[in-house]
Design brief:
Enzyme class: isomerase
Structural class: alpha+beta
Organism: Bosea vestrisii
InterPro entries: ADC_synthase, Chorismate_C, IsoChor_synthase
Largest sheet: 10 strands, antiparallel
Keywords: Isomerase
Number of strands: 22
Strand content: 25-35%
Order of helices and strands: EEEHEEEEHEHEEEEEHHEEEEHEHEEEEH
Protein name: isochorismate synthase
Length: about 375
């Protein structure tokens, strides 16, 4: 049942947040307290974001919540304000069964769309990054695009979410209210961290290929991805970075020797499931997320140098894209997914995002094709072609 006081503290939001994974979903009701403290240094006990969350949890306990939770999103750039809140109430329930994927729900007529950067601008950014690799310590940088769609009327986010659920039965489905009355919505395939008691799981992805309609061609695309030296190299950069961060925090850490294949409706990915047991079970899921983020899967390697390169070549601010979305409770349990395969809906506008990992062996035309394929998840949910 929803916690008490759900209506008392509702700040005029007509909906709550949703985060679904592993056959269950978390639904929130109302806003007890917003938390906008940036996530930089959020792993440090008693300071910054950690201190703000603990204080908010204590106020929620005094208001009658036995085990308060935090839900929301953290930006790509952890120096920017977070978009997190302690809801007035929440409930866990079995994940609603997805309807059979058929025709996507109707959306208002599409009036126009634009890509930032456009194809030529993105390819030039990839070329710039490759030249930079040869003259710096950067080995990988993730470059992205925004596709902005403008419709004849407001987007029905509930129907969009239902379409995402129907077409993507696996993954981390989310809908998060934003302070400016927009909504962050999507279905991410990538788990940054899950913590239950003292046990943790991380499932980073790096290295991708577009799914094919023909089964034989689809299998061939998957096998080619497994053999790709470029994609295997990109994946190793991510795994070794996360291993180096988690190993000192764990009494046990299991990292498979080689990645496996993971598929979504639109993409094949190289995937490695990492499992461990913490030295300090009191460390929270949010603290762990703040330690790991951003990984080379969404930023690059080394992190700081890659981040500088991204700021230089990308003609927009990412905001919540390639940040984190998820939840954490007052006992420290929680899960945080990478904010990809997503969009921000605001009245008659939908901004979609996609990125690709660039290494020295990258081909600008192939990377453009990859970001277009990744946009397919959200475009298909809107009934539009990639």
């Amino acid at each position: 049942m929803l916690e008490s006081l759900a209506l008392k503290h509702n700040l005029n939001f007509k909906f709550g947040a949703l985060f679904a994974s592993n056959g269950r979903e978390l639904l929130s009701s109302g806003i007890h307290e917003w938390i906008s403290v940036p996530a930089r240094g959020g792993q440090d006990r008693g300071q910054g974001l950690h201190a703000a969350v603990e204080a908010a949890f204590e106020r929620a306990r005094r208001a009658g919540q036995a085990n308060p939770i935090l839900i929301g999103a953290i930006p790509f750039d952890v120096r920017e304000p977070s978009c997190l809140y302690v809801p007035a109430g929440y409930e866990w329930r079995e994940q609603a069964p997805a309807e059979a994927a058929g025709e996507p729900p109707g959306v208002p007529d599409l009036l126009d769309q634009r890509s930032l950067p456009d194809e030529d601008g993105f390819k030039k950014a990839v070329e710039h990054a490759i030249v930079n690799f040869r003259h710096s310590d950067v080995r990988k940088a993730v470059l992205s695009v925004v596709r902005e769609l403008r419709f004849a009327g407001s987007m029905d986010v509930g129907r969009l979410l239902a379409s995402l659920r129907a077409q993507n039965s696996q993954g981390y489905l989310f809908r998060i209210p934003l302070p400016d009355e927009g909504e962050l919505v999507g279905v991410s395939p990538e788990l940054l961290i899950r913590k239950e008691g003292g046990r943790i799981v991380s499932n980073p992805l790096a290295g991708s290929a577009k799914r094919q309609r023909d089964p034989l061609a689809d299998r061939a695309a998957a096998e080619q991805l497994e053999r790709s030296q470029k994609d295997q190299y990109e994946h190793r950069l991510v795994i070794e970075n996360i291993r180096s961060i988690l190993a000192p925090l764990c009494v046990e850490l299991n990292v498979p020797d080689a990645p496996s294949l993971m598929s979504t409706a639109a993409m094949w990915h190289l995937s490695t499931r990492i499992e461990g047991v913490l030295n300090d079970p009191a460390m929270t899921a949010l603290q762990l997320a703040c330690i790991i983020h951003p990984t080379p899967a969404v930023c690059g390697f080394p992190t700081e140098s890659a981040h500088k390169l991204i700021r230089y070549v990308e003609p927009f601010e990412r905001g919540l894209f390639t940040g984190l979305v998820g939840w954490c409770d007052a006992q420290g349990n929680g899960e945080w997914a990478i904010t990809i395969r997503c969009g921000i809906a605001r009245r008659d506008t939908l901004r979609l995002f996609a990125g690709a990992g660039i290494v020295e062996a990258s081909n600008p035309a192939s990377e453009w094709e990859e970001v277009q394929a990744k946009l397919g998840t959200m475009l298909s949910a809107c009934g539009l072609a990639a």
